[in-house]
Amino acid sequence: MGATQRVSMTDVARRAGVSQKTVSRVVNGEPHVADPIRAKVQAAIDEMGFRPNAAARALVTRRNQRIGMVTPSTSLYGPAAILEGVDGALRGSGYHLGVARTRGNGVADLQAAIDELVAQDIAGLVLSEPIDLGHPDLRIPNGLPVLSFGSPKTGSPEADESPHEFVMGADETAGARSAVEHLLALGHHTVHHLGGTEGWSATARRIAGWRAALSDAKVEAPPVVHGDWTPRSGYEATTDLLRRGGVTAIFAANDHMAIGAIRAVEQAGLRVPEDVSLVGFDDAPEAEYLSTSLTTVRQDFAEVTRLAVHRLVSTIEGRPPPERHRLIPARLIVRESTAPPPSAIHQAPPPERQA
Fold first, then answer.
1. Cα 230–167–228 angle (5° rounding)?
2. CA-CA distance, 279 to 296, in Å (whole number)?
3. Which of 119, 137, 278, 290 is the most exposed place for a label (fewest CB within 10 A)?
4. Which is it for strands 296-298 and 249-252: parallel, antiparallel or unpaired?
5. pLDDT digits (tens, 9 = 90+) for 89-99
6. CA–CA separation, 153 and 156 (whole Å)
7. Residue 194, φ and ψ in degrees, nearest 5
8. pLDDT-derived band of residue 151, with 50, 70 and 90 as boundaries?
9. pLDDT by residue (tens digit) across 196-253?
């Protein structure tokens, strides 16, 4: 009997090669399980001697109303807004959110958080930035519905075979492109980029948009200067850029680095936007209320998370969406921090005199 009690639903799922949710459905006699899968699970149950009692069934039922979310331990606006959006979208859905926070972005830290949630027999899993389905080394149980706000899997057969994994997010690449095109259209000869933390998929997507806009304009891209999403890193990176000279336009990968950049410009005795134009990304709440309001790219986190959670719940309940990768447009919000470069202003012809 002692050996029987040590067998868990997770053990059965691993032996049968299915998700804990599928094992739960078989144990509780629920529909929507294909006969071959049901037979495989039942064989594993019989082989391992798994016998849940009534109390265990009740516990499993409650756990199956739980959705797990892996998110970094940070107050950064993007991840915090995604967490708040997911939590709000789940209210009234009948599902509850369990959160595992990671202190690092290494595989061991991320896998430990995923394993912690999977052990709770969650119904679905949410991966917040910088974790995404494109990570090749993360182990996620087959059949567990997974929502990612990062990047889809690429280059693997599983990318086209799992209807339970899907990606939702703002079109950051197109948003970054629009920011750079705006600056080029104002007359700036090039645009420098303050990139986010290396290794984040958001960093890569925003760099891709920046590069694409410069390439279309036949402008050679200057080296990316990376920060870590904080105002301090934006300040330090911009201070270094300004020492090199010739900087008239900067696109920062988020608003907080742009705020630090504004401080660096002012301390260098220059003005925004008369000497240096700045564009951020995210449209954080404070962006509109700076002394020089910030031109930025708006991500609608509330809409993205609402649609994403609806898709996740539908997938859990057996109605997966036909498309597994959807991007919501990101919108350029033009405010006061961008203007033509100083040379364009100084070289502008004087207004004609009226006769």
1. 10
2. 5
3. 137
4. unpaired
5. 998 888 999 99
6. 7
7. -95, 105
8. low
9. 999 888 999 999 999 999 999 999 999 999 999 999 999 999 999 999 899 999 999 9
Q: Which residues make Cβ contacts (< 8 Å) with residue 265, sequence separation at least 6?
A: 238, 242, 271, 272, 275, 276, 278
CB 46 within 8 A of CB 269: no
Provide the token pair at 100: 């595992």
Distances (CA, A) of 83 to 75, 76, 98: 11, 11, 11
DSSP conformational letter for 285: G
Sign of the dihedral defined by the CA atoms of residues 42, 45, 50, 55, in that order: negative
Identify the H or E element spanning 325: strand 325-328
Among 195, 197, 193, 164, which Cα is nearest to 180's? 193
Q: What's the pLDDT tens digit per position in 46-78?
A: 888 776 544 444 444 444 689 999 998 888 899
Longest CA–CA separation in the chain, Å = 105
Which amino acid, one-letter code, is at 296? T
Name the residue with tokens 């997974």. Answer: 146
Cα dihedral across residues 120, 125, 130, 136: positive or negative: positive
CB 81 within 8 A of CB 75: no
Query: Exposed, middle or buried: residue 55 (CB in 10 Å: 0-12, 13-18, 19+)?
Result: exposed
Beta strand residue intervals within the chain, DSSP E? 66-72, 96-102, 124-127, 146-148, 165-170, 192-195, 225-226, 249-252, 277-279, 296-298, 325-328, 331-333
